[in-house]
Amino acid sequence: MAKAKPTPGARRGGSRAELMMQVRRWHSYLGALIAPALLMFAITGGFQLFGLHESHGDYRPQPLLEKFGQLHMKQKFSAKASRPAAGGAPAKGAVQAGAAPKPAAAKTVTPFKIQALKWFFLLVSAGLTISTLLGVWLALTFSRNKPVIWGLLMAGTLLPVLLVLL
């Protein structure tokens, strides 16, 4: 009797379906661990597109929003230091009297293009947030090991908090 040829998806020690189950399992585990940070970056990035994380003019952001903006940009959970008053020392990088002005950018972008790009990136931020939340829901709904998923979600939330506090 002739020896049967192995199927293209077959591997030593398991089938292609078993391999895909392992890949899905590890994808769920990794996703659960990084989902809290991914949500923080997607949401705070959306606020930063329109400068809602820092003061300008009469606008003052909520302290928590300002702190998350600093965490996103500087990896520090604290409010940005306030700028000196008009008579105080010049801000870092400010042009001194008599100093040569910085050269203008070679290519200027129209305000419409900037606004359109900001709105597109806000759509990306919202899509990333929704996609991440759906991924967490799928992992919790279809995982056979829900305690591991919950543990990784908690670890992904608590580990950055502990690192910021240290």
Written description of the protein model:
The chain is mainly alpha-helical and 166 residues long. It has one domain (16-79, 111-165). 59% of the residues lie in helices and 0% in strands. It is built from 4 helices and no strands. It has helices at residues 16-49, 63-74, 111-142, 146-165. The radius of gyration is 25 Å and the shape is elongated. It starts with 15 loop residues before the first helix and ends with a helix. The model has no long low-confidence stretch (mean pLDDT 79).
Summed up, what is this model?
The chain is mainly α.
Number of strands: 0
Structural class: mainly alpha
User: How many discrete structural domains?
Assistant: 1
Number of helices: 4
Largest sheet descriptor: none
The helix/strand order is: HHHH
Enumerate the spans where pLDDT stays under 50 for 5 or more consecutive residues: none
Q: Residue-averaged pLDDT, rounded? A: 79
Shape: elongated
Q: How big a fraction of the residues is strand?
A: under 5%
Task: Tell me the span between the first and last alpha carbons.
Answer: 69 Å
Proportion of residues in helical segments: 55-70%
Radius of gyration: 25 Å
Write the layout of secondary structure elements.
Blueprint: H1 16-49, H2 63-74, H3 111-142, H4 146-165
Helix pairs in contact: 1-2, 1-3, 1-4
